[in-house]
């Protein structure tokens, strides 16, 4: 094993290693990984090696700082894998280990180039192209070899962007119990499946996810797919958000492009559950359009298209302020939308005080009165908000 140890040390220390593929398990075990693919990746501006462990029906990832990668790679050869192909721009090294641990290393012509090295080191998505992910294959986003279909690349990026946002809020979710997540208005559920895959399979977090939608045919299709993928803690139900009363404790509420005030109904549920995290991308905000009035804003409001966009933005400003008032720290972030329309704002609210509620209520009521708005969310959550005084109402 000394010659192999020396080679691995040299390739990692010099940063020459472009990829390593380890295969042929020493002992066949049905639940163990049967292949490991290792690639350099840049994370937080530092070189890491990503170890992708391929099992029969899943792939898990571990990112190891380059300085610490030598030991786990060597251990894989020592403990479980009998074959390896280590690639650099200079040469490929084929490693073969006999049953009695005799090592042979064959040096071959390089099959990788500098371009492969740079490609591997570029920013990586949470779900990587080139590695088949069962739900993405089933949803027709990639083929069985992990190649993303050209027409589905936008969807692939959107899913990854969503998962990056989920990754950011992971520390805000409870760690001491099974997580409960509800996706309201889940529709075809691309992002619901992505959430399940990321949290349950990649992050190994115990959880259950409920997807709810009005459309029975879509829900039936999603349920069949969850069964096929063996996602046994992912449940799809037909129902209206406002009537959903089946759970007592929910840790995270997701609602993506639920129409008009369906978003507000979802936000109300989330607040009443005291959910730790809310991720919401609103859509089709018609409510304020029919309410908003202010003579001083007539140059804006007299143009239908401007009034529509202004009403949508004002609705999100109102939602964010109301969530702050109800004990959340709320941010509005850009979300990639498939149609590149203005429907690209994600409301991310994390449980925790956003500041002085008296000042926030003052700011909120001035804004709402200026627009003569009567927001659904305020009405629905009146018992959770400060009581309005007669002088505020008259403002
Ligand atoms: C534009 S689709 C978005 C689907 C999915 N969340 C996504 O982002 O791809 C909106 C979905 O919300 C559902 N929906 C709208 N109002 C609803 C309500 N009150 N209760 C449950 N589902 C609702 C619709 O049936 C539709 O499937």
UniProtKB/TrEMBL annotation:
This is SAM-dependent methyltransferase. SUPFAM superfamilies: S-adenosyl-L-methionine-dependent methyltransferases (SSF53335). The keyword DNA-binding does not apply. Signal peptide: none annotated. The keyword Methyltransferase applies. Keywords: Methyltransferase, Transferase. Pfam families: Methyltransf_32. One of its GO terms (cellular component) is cytoplasm. Residues 154-289 form the Methyltransferase domain. CDD domains: AdoMet_MTases. One of its GO terms (biological process) is methylation. It comes from Paenibacillus bovis. GO terms for molecular function: methyltransferase activity. It comes from the Bacteria. PANTHER family: METHYLTRANSFERASE DOMAIN-CONTAINING PROTEIN, PTHR13369.
């Amino acid at each position: 094993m000394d010659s192999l140890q020396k080679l691995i040390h040299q390739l990692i220390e010099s940063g020459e290693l472009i990829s390593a593929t380890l295969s042929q398990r020493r002992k066949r075990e049905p639940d163990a990984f049967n292949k490991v693919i290792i690639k350099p990746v840049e994370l937080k501006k530092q070189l890491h090696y990503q170890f992708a462990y391929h099992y029969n029906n899943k792939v898990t990832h571990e990112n190891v700082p380059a300085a610490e990668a030598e030991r786990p790679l060597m251990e894989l050869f020592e403990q479980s894998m009998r074959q390896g192909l280590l690639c650099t721009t200079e040469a490929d090294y084929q490693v073969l280990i006999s049953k009695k641990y005799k090592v042979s290393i064959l040096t071959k012509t390089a099959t990788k180039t500098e371009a492969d090295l740079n490609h591997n080191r570029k920013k990586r998505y949470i779900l990587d192209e080139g590695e088949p992910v069962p739900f993405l294959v089933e949803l027709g986003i990639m083929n069985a070899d992990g190649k993303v279909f050209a027409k589905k690349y936008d969807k692939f990026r959107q899913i990854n962007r969503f998962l990056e946002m989920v990754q950011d809020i992971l520390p805000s979710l409870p760690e001491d119990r099974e997580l409960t997540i509800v996706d309201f208005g889940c529709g075809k559920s691309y992002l619901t499946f992505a959430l399940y895959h990321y949290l349950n399979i990649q992050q190994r977090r115990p959880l259950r996810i409920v997807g709810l939608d009005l459309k029975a045919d879509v829900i039936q299709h999603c349920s069949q797919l969850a069964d096929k993928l063996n996602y046994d803690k992912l449940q799809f139900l037909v129902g209206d958000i406002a009537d959903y009363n089946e759970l007592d404790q929910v840790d995270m509420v997701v609602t993506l492009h639920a129409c008009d005030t369906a978003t507000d109904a979802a936000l109300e549920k989330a607040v009443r559950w005291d959910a730790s995290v809310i991720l919401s991308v609103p859509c089709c905000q018609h409510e304020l359009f029919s309410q908003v009035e202010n003579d001083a804003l007539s140059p804006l409001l007299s143009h239908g298209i401007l009034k529509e966009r202004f009403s949508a933005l004002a609705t999100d400003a109102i939602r964010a302020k109301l969530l702050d008032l109800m004990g959340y720290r709320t941010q509005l972030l850009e979300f990639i939308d498939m149609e590149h329309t203005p429907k690209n704002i994600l409301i991310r609210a994390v449980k925790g005080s956003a500041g002085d509620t008296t000042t926030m209520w003052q700011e909120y009521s001035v804004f709402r009165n200026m627009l003569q708005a009567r927001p659904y969310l305020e009405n629905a959550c009146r018992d959770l908000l400060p009581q309005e005084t007669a002088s505020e109402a008259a403002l």
